[in-house]
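[User] Could I get a sequence and structure tokens?

[Assistant]
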Amino acid sequence: MDGIVGVVGLGTMGLGIVLVYAQAGFAVLATDSFPAARASARERLTAALAPRLAKGAISQGDHDAILDRITIVDDVAALAPAGLVVEAIIETLAAKQSLVAGLEAVLAPDAVIATNTSSLAVTAIATGAKRPERILGLHFFNPAQVMKLVELVAHPGTSPAALTRAGDWTRAAGKVVIDAPDRPGFIVNRCARPFYGEALALLEEGRSAGEIDAAMQAAGYRIGSFGLIDLIGADINLAATEGLSRAMGGHPRYHVFAALQDQVAAGRLGRKSGQGFVFPGEAGPLPTDAAAIALRIEATLVNEAGWLLAEGGTTRDGIDSALKLGLNFPRGPFEMLAAHGADRIRATLAGLEASAPAHLKTRYLPSPLLEAS
């Protein structure tokens, strides 16, 4: 591919993004502010490619060509030839704004600057930039070289030309690029909250994590709500939930459940710590009301998707595709709505709202989508 891509930040996500573009034929310039990260990058890239080489997914020639297209450089100034730079540095606004200023000092006027942030507003990152029209979000999912979904996020001032280049180059790298609004959590992190949150609400009511997960797996989900928390890490899930709760004014739809906080406080983070909500065990046994459990969680997923749709910047198909690609859901929220019917979803939410404890009141109020259906 013609074009040079820059990547700033050589942690796990940054290295994955480097591989995404290098595997597609782009020349990649990559850097990190920490010398140790730069020094170890080549070794870590080689290790990341090793499983694909071992199973024959790539040849030795492909392997060597991918690495040959990657140049680790000492600083941001060396990214000057890049037409697209993706940053994957620490999730703090000041650091990202400072990096944008540094990049603007060396890049060509039409070069695109993309942030991989998952928790900050792209609008805020662009604030103070000399050319905010070339700033946008490219939100990859971990591991970036494997996950197909990338959320493309425009702020109000992003130019069509910047969006076209970022989208075209990323699609050329084999990704499914979906337009996402510059709203807290974008699409996936926002719309996925009920998958975890409603399971935690059920846990709070006395249901077990195993039976909740068994119900979701029986409904076609590859992994249940608690199994997914254990896979991602309870600490990561808690941070995402707390961040979204703050961004959305503490609305009960994003309630931070004590069980999740307790899990983190106890160090039961899931697979990475050796113990989680269900790990190292398995889901089960299947409860007699499994279908009702799945309906409850899917009703809240539908409702959250409806609230996001009402805020603009995305589509029903975009939301459905993002949830299926980003979380391996068997169906998207609007496909759930079609399967269950609006009346059944509304009735489920109404029953939940009527019986909700004080700290969850208004959690289940129907979105404009459901009120109009």
